[in-house]
Specification:
- This protein folds into two domains: 135 residues, Response regulator (Rossmann fold), CATH 3.40.50; 157 residues, Response regulator (Rossmann fold).
- Helix 1 links the parallel strand 1 and strand 2.
- With 343 residues, the chain is α/β, with parallel strands linked by helices.
- The strands form two sheets. A six-stranded parallel sheet has the order 2-1-3-4-5-11, sandwiched between helices. It has a six-stranded mixed sheet with strand order 7-6-8-9-10-12, with helices on both faces.
Amino acid sequence: MRLKPMRLKPLITHVLLGVAALSLAISCGSAPSNPPSAEADNSPDGRLRIAMIANVPENDGSWGQAGYEGLKLVERELNAEVSFRGLVPDDEGAGPMRDYAEAGYDFIIAHGGGYVDSAEAVAAEFPRTKFAITTTYGGNNRNLGAVAFRAEEVGYLSGVLAAMTTETNKVAYLVGYDYPVYQEEAAMFEKGAKEINPDVEVVTEFLQTWTDEAIGRDAVLRLAEQGFDRFAINADEAGLAGIEAIAADDNYRNVKVIGWTGDQHSVAPDHVMTSVLQDIPRMILNATDLLQQGRWEGRLYKFGLREEIYSFAPFRGSISAEQEAQFEQIKNQVMVGEVDLTL
């Protein structure tokens, strides 16, 4: 049984003042139904106010939905007031973040690595507001920091698993964008694969999209046609389309996939070996706990296997018992730091 993930314990609890006040409704989709305004500068009831922007919708079954569920978890656990705005292009993030800052939100989360420039600009304009980016980013040591996964752990382990099980000696890692965190993940995928099998052929493709299903589908089918039979796919809607395309073609019955973010077994039960599970909601809660404790220092906070923010979905018989035992042994070694994850 999976243990309940560890989270940071808040040192400060919010006391409701009992004053009736209006609050912004949680908003979904491309724009909030009740956009933040300067009239909502104060929170008379004393509640923490948290906002998030993302470049994907809240119901994408992957990254965006996980971020939205993180906000809902914060709302429940910390009695916070929350607002979500999805489908915000990376280069247009400054506007919504500025709107939220002007509306008096305490913590504004840019959910994705494409918002770094926007977050830096708006954080400089509002030094008393706290900002976070969900990516590997060093922060400004003041009010802008980041929360991220120890991506090297699952990059390495997914490469190990792909190389351990391939029948054609060709494995591939596909991801939405070439943000630094995913470049690191890709490099560790290759490192893990090569340490298991020095002769394995490893390919990485940055799709430059999370949502274009045609691009994801074409990339997976093209590589499968070239004989690649093991994929780690971290590409949201584009990646799901690729998995579905493999499942729909009898020529690729031996192609297996490591899914990402959530358990994607149901997408293609005969093809998804396992999935990298990211407890993004718990990571969002951890970040907000830091804020509530007064410990948000504008730096990078990382979480991984040890905190159970990362895990792997059940194999469900997709690999042999011997392979599963070998993988579990290597995973435990990674978790306790016995494996060199430097490049």
